[in-house]
Amino acid sequence: MFESANLEHRVDKAAYKREALKLRQALLDTQYDLKEDGRFPVLVVIAGVEGAGKSETVNQLNEWMDPRHILTSAFAEPSDEERERPSQYRFWRAMPPKGKIGIFFGAWHTDPVLQRVLGDMGDGEFQREIGEIQRLEKMLADEGVLLLKYWFHLSRRQQRKRLEELEADPKTRWRVSDLDWKYFKLYKKFIKVCDPFLRKTSTAQAPWVVVPGANPRYRTLTVCRHLLAAVRERLAEKTPKRTADRIPPLPAPVDRLNVLRALKLDQPTTKDEYKKELEKWQGRLAVAARDRRFGKVSVIALFEGNDAAGKGGALRRVTSALDARRYTNIPIAAPTEEERARPYLWRFWRHVPRRGRFAFFDRSWYGRVLVERVERFADEADWMRAYSEINDFEQALTRHGVVLVKFWLAISKDEQFRRFKRREQVAFKRFKITEEDWRNRKKWDAYEGAVCDMVDRTSTAIAPWTLVEANNKYHARLKVLKTLCRALEDALESTPKKKVKR
Amino acid sequence: MFESANLEHRVDKAAYKREALKLRQALLDTQYDLKEDGRFPVLVVIAGVEGAGKSETVNQLNEWMDPRHILTSAFAEPSDEERERPSQYRFWRAMPPKGKIGIFFGAWHTDPVLQRVLGDMGDGEFQREIGEIQRLEKMLADEGVLLLKYWFHLSRRQQRKRLEELEADPKTRWRVSDLDWKYFKLYKKFIKVCDPFLRKTSTAQAPWVVVPGANPRYRTLTVCRHLLAAVRERLAEKTPKRTADRIPPLPAPVDRLNVLRALKLDQPTTKDEYKKELEKWQGRLAVAARDRRFGKVSVIALFEGNDAAGKGGALRRVTSALDARRYTNIPIAAPTEEERARPYLWRFWRHVPRRGRFAFFDRSWYGRVLVERVERFADEADWMRAYSEINDFEQALTRHGVVLVKFWLAISKDEQFRRFKRREQVAFKRFKITEEDWRNRKKWDAYEGAVCDMVDRTSTAIAPWTLVEANNKYHARLKVLKTLCRALEDALESTPKKKVKR
Fold it and tell me: Cβ neighbours of residue B31 under 8 Å, at least 6 residues apart?
């Protein structure tokens, strides 16, 4: 969930100044339009880790817009009045009316998440709370509330740095308490609770927007631009839509940095290194696949990537280490007639392997949020809900003990051009290049954005993406092989040697 | 959830024969229309208690329609093939294509519910399963599957009778196993698990239809009529609707028996009895309200009922026993402007009382599924989702320790006529009767249907409805007073005397 947010995003000061002025004016105008329109309220939920700029953002929103039409509520300790009522009471009390913006600094999630992190809430209770939150937010969306949820994130390193900086400055020292450091020590546990929580409460109608919190200019632009776009989009609705069609926009990138651009695509692996390593790791994989404990797990590996990134080549280096009776290759192209006649995931469920088998997907269910999104084969409402559907699907797999490995093979635009040209020139490679490849290439930026959203929304603790730098084929093939091999070895490691009864 | 289903519904043999023939033909025709149309699949889920006619119904559907276009899957023990995959695999494998009907005899809920009843599944795991089922069913609905879920119910008495009957007949003795009797012993536990399960998995797009299972003719007509209506309604869609608008119809009543008609509205309480009892119970209530433990709970009582059923009179007999500083009367009429500007439940949340207080709602949030439904002030999609929203709201109240008592005061149509006439004749009562009352009276049957659906869908283990026979005012007032007093006494009973720290 936090792949993009963990990057060191920055916005240049001059560029920020230019934009901030315009953005501020646009926000204020939109706020008055909202009031004039009066058809719906906006509810902004501010959440996330300490020190990630939550209060600064709330202050800024109040400064940039007309605070008379913003209802800001900070939900710290409940008052006596509130404690005597059910926990939702305080949020209902602060509910903004149509035409206004409500900012909830902390909301219904705060208490359960914190209690779960501190170990004061059991799993059953926490699961029940998640269910209640889902239903509450669905109801608000159904009632026409524009619900915008921002999750402010810092990497562990960033949070430590931030706390140290605040402490070093006499003017801000008071803001850091022992409690902050206590919470910092719980960082990993916090993320472990939040990852599935965000995953399950991110729906198509009320998705979480993860805001990288380290750089103030970056986070301001992220929130303000998104808020502006979301309110404007809803104001532009002429005839009121039904909830299922009301999908707030995903945030547009603020800087040029993203999970793909952060990769060093050219890696130095030489042919000699490759040969040696390839033999070693193919050997290890072959051994792992013959381990008797493999009879208790199964492996699904999926390969996505730019056209000509070398998916097929990498896959062949994996399968050549394996017994052909043990694996199936599943190339995903256009769905067949019988596949189109059933819900989307059916075509993938039918290929889920038995125990002791590998299934390799050459392209996968991620087509829904890649090609179907970019080429507009699927409606926004449909690909937006696919993120959580895919997360549910993958959770079902991993909870059953399937080893799930997801590869994105990334090459640069230049490298792709070279490979396309070479494919056209070499006779036996010509079948691999079509007009469609050239057409897709023209949409490079759109695909890049879709990939980054995909990684952010589906790289979860239970099923992380492995991004593979693939300009150098040797490196790419080895990384794929090693990652897969290690994932299988880890799974075998945690499988008891003795026969398990179910 | 099972109020209607616990009644002894019957269908006369001759009437059944006449209808069955037509129904059968209509089902067959509709099945071919579905195949011809080919836009969506129908998935029928058959669930519920043992011995309630599930398998008979599955057989009958296959007999009445063309079995070549029905895919029936019974999910008993999973096969080896299936056991080696995640639990959803077997359901995906059996997923019907567009244009066909799939019947799932048992489905994704079977295993979790059974395991929970037998104590083999913890609360956390069960809550997680409920969440997964909600998301799976939402996804299927979003993908265009017409999902029809039938829950076959028997009261405990009916189930015992059924098992005994099967055992008594040599031809059917084989059908009753020791396991059946073992499960019968768990009946109460089963219902305790199923009540919240049904509540949470009943959504507007995929509501459970509870089928009274004791009378074969009744249950056949219930399922077949509903299936027919639901498929026809969807076939009639000219332009495809989005999911939020796709609400399968609620089942229409099959016989004249319902929870209201089952009441003996004329009760024999005399004025003398009334006076004596009134004094006694008002005294008890006054004592309970002065108990120091009352400082730790609060009471919400809501009064709904036919026009002129005596809600106000009953309420006054309650409040006259109480200290005026301890209670608030909240008459619910048309919403104010500031209430209309916020999500529906806001107007009720604002009146949730502090501890040690009573809040009396004269009409309530149930307006959504009564007047707003009947008068078409709310769309079907909106009042259908209100059932589960209201259940969530009431769960939030009761989990906080609010004592929630819900009264429906029922009078007969004749009695209402007499009271209306009297109100017109007696000067000081004239303000109580308006043109609107006479208009509402014309929709008596529509309101009656709405009340029965309301009771079935919102009378839950945590917040049951109390139906009050109110032709005799003395009886009605005493029943209200007693029920409220006992509910409060029970709550105080389970509150520790010592001061509790929160």
Answer: B65, B66, B69, B70, B101
Whether B81 sits inside 8 A of A354 (CB atoms) is yes
B88·A349 Cβ contact <8 A: yes
Question: Three-state SS for B173?
Answer: helix
Average pLDDT over residues A352-363: 95
Q: How far is A409 from chain B (nearest CA, A)?
A: 28
Q: What is the DSSP letter of A211?
A: E
Gap between the Cα atoms of A121 and A130, Å rounded: 12
CA distance A335 to A377: 13
pTM of the model: 0.84
Residue A382 Cα, gap to closest chain B Cα (Å): 8
Percentage of chain B exceeding pLDDT 70:
98
**Which parts of chain B sit beneath pLDDT 50?**
500-502
Q: Which of A99, A346, A502 sits opposite B92 (nearest CB)?
A: A346
Of the candidates A88, A121, A84, the one whose C-alpha atom is nearest the C-alpha of residue A104 is A88
The pLDDT of residue B499 is 52
Return the closest-CA partner of residue B382 out of A12, A3, B214, B390: B390
The residues, ordered by sequence, that sit 6+ positions from A337 with a Cβ below 8 Å of its Cβ are none
Give the tens place of pLDDT for each residue, A56-108. 999 999 999 998 899 999 988 888 888 888 888 999 989 999 999 999 999 99
Proportion of chain A above pLDDT 70, given as a percent? 99
d(CA A185, CA B363): 52
**What pLDDT is stored for residue A409 in this prediction?**
97
Predicted pLDDT at A502? 43
Out of B243, B354, B402, the one facing A244 most closely (by C-beta) is: B243
Q: Which residues 6+ apart lie within 8 Å of B473 measured at CB?
A: B310, B313, B314
The three-point CA angle B209-B211-B212 to 5° equals 150
Edge-to-edge strand ranges of the sheet holding A465-469: A327-331, A358-362, A298-305, A402-410, A465-469
Closest CA to A186 of A126, A122, A124, A115: A115
Nearest-CA residue of chain A relative to B43?
Answer: A342
Structure tokens at B65: 């329609």
Q: What pLDDT shows up at residue A6?
A: 84
* Record: contact B342-A136, CB cut-off 8 A: no
Alpha-carbon distance of B224 to B56, in angstroms, equals: 13
Among the partner residues B131, B343, B355, nearest to A127 by beta-carbon distance: B131
**Locus of tokens 């931030």:** A162
ipTM confidence score? 0.80
Residues paired with A359 in a beta bridge: A300, A328
Q: Phi first, then psi: what are they for B71, rounded to 5°? A: -105, 100
Closest by Cβ to A95, choosing from B124, B343, B399:
B343
Q: What is the nearest CA distance from B502 to chain A, expressed in angstroms?
A: 9
Average pLDDT over residues A326-346: 91
CA distance B186 to B163: 14
Taking an 8 Å cut-off on Cβ atoms, the answer to whether A135 and B83 are in contact is: no
Per-residue confidence (pLDDT) for residue B497, from 0 to 100: 65
Closest CA to A96 of B346, B350, B342, B349: B342
CB atoms under 10 Å from CB of B186, counted, come to 15
- Separation of alpha carbons B298 and B321, rounded Å: 16
Residues of chain B with Cβ-Cβ distance to A341 below 8 Å are: 38, 41, 97-99
Interval B167-214: pLDDT, tens: 899 888 888 888 888 888 999 999 999 998 998 899 888 899 999 999
pLDDT digits (tens, 9 = 90+) for A156-213: 999 999 889 888 998 888 888 888 888 889 999 999 999 889 988 998 888 999 999 9
To test the contact with chain B by mutation, choose from A346, A349, A379, A462 the residue with the greatest count of B C-beta atoms within 10 A, namely A349
Flag if A99 and B124 touch (Cβ within 8 Å): no
Query: DSSP code of A270?
Result: -
